[in-house]
Amino acid sequence: MEKRRVAVTGVGLITPCGTGTEKSWENIKNGISGIDLIKKLDVSRFETKIAGEVHDFDPLEFFDKKELRRIDTFIQYAIAATQFAIEQANIEFDEELKDRTGVIIGVGLGGLDIIEKNKLILEEKGPKRISPFFIPMLIGNEAAANVSIRWGFKGPNFCVTTACASGAHSIGEAFKIIQRGAADVIIAGGAESVITPLSISGFNSMKALSRRNDEPQKASRPFDKDRDGFVMGEGAGLIILEDMDFAKKRGAKILAEIVGYGLCCEAYHIAAPAPDGVGMAMSMELALKDAGIQPENIDYINAHGTSTELNDKYETAAIKKVFGDYAYKLKVSSTKSMTGHLLGAAGGIEAGISVLAIRDNVIPPTINYENPDPECDLNYVPNKMIEQKLNYVMSNSFGFGGQNATLIFKRYEE
């Protein structure tokens, strides 16, 4: 059976760079950081005092006060980002289409904030004061479930949890479900909101977070020699995938086509990437094979680029392994330099950014690239965006446990 083509028709972004797709994208492509000192917590006890918080999100624009008592922040972000994506796709759902519409939203840690708060309630006030909504607020699948409940989508629905690859895996699986004809439309990506005391403490214990507290906007510096760890972010990134024939029939504006998906496990370590990026390279090679294209077809890679010592070094090595001499002609950038690392939402946001890059023929920069690392010697689009026609864009997402995912998007052609 011939595989169906899959279109991208909508992008919904809520990031530290702004609530709303175009606001986020405008700041990201112009190199404006969303990272600052943490406002929502007292961070005086913590080694890390910075993060990429979403400051301009007003939940009352999307929910009434009763609803807000029942849904955690990551679910709120998922629903709002879905609304932005649907508006951009200009799609209307009748009952027949709702039966053929799915939702797959990746989540890394879910409702960690609600767990921490209810643990304190349990200790201070006793078990009878725990909210009956506690469990539905914390479990990761409730982002996808709540989106489906709100719009009445009855198609394939599940949550992917593969750490920092969750959002990308969600999109890849959605792509394959539509490709084989099991759905016509799927909203896919990731959502996360875990800037909490326990999360900050845990990542600090792993020596994973930047401690550049005196210069928050300069703390996330992927591929730079002076990088000292990632900066946590929050938000959601969702895209609308449609069967190509369905999208064309309804007159949709097609932003891009998704053509490749690679995934693998390094089977190496619970947190560290495999040496020399062998697993990362495998993920990229599988995506290229799935897309049926050569490495030289890729114009731009939106890198995982976390601003950690090992990821950036090994991702660079992996790109060289896959692309050979052509690696030095490629444009590579990490938009985490502006958004921070949104964990389970990262792959969804960066897929959305990749689609918008194709739409606008713009490559967003890697900001804070000031001190080149001899082991990271590719063109990372330092500090300023580049205008360039883009035909194929690759997006990498690599998670703890060695669970890797790579997506490839293509400029739409009849």
Offer a few descriptive terms:
414 residues; alpha/beta; Peroxisomal Thiolase, Chain A, domain 1; 2 domains; 11-stranded mixed β-sheet; globular
Write down how many β-strands occur, each being a DSSP E stretch of 2 or more residues: 15
Tell me the helix content: 25-40%
Number of domains: 2
**Overall SS class:** alpha/beta
What is the string of helix and strand elements?
EEHEEHHHEHHHEHEHEHEHEHEHHEEEE
Unreliable segments (pLDDT under 50, ≥5 consecutive)?
A: none
Alpha-carbon Rg, integer: 20 Å
Number of helical segments with 4 or more residues: 14
Mean pLDDT: 97
CATH-assigned homologous superfamily of the largest domain: Thiolase/Chalcone synthase
Strand content: 15-25%
Query: Distance between the terminal alpha carbons, to the nearest Å?
Result: 21 Å
CATH class of the largest domain: Alpha Beta
CATH topology of the largest domain: Peroxisomal Thiolase, Chain A, domain 1
Q: Which CATH architecture of the largest domain would you pick? A: 3-Layer(aba) Sandwich
Main sheet properties: 11 strands, mixed
> What overall geometry do the principal axes of the alpha carbons give?
globular
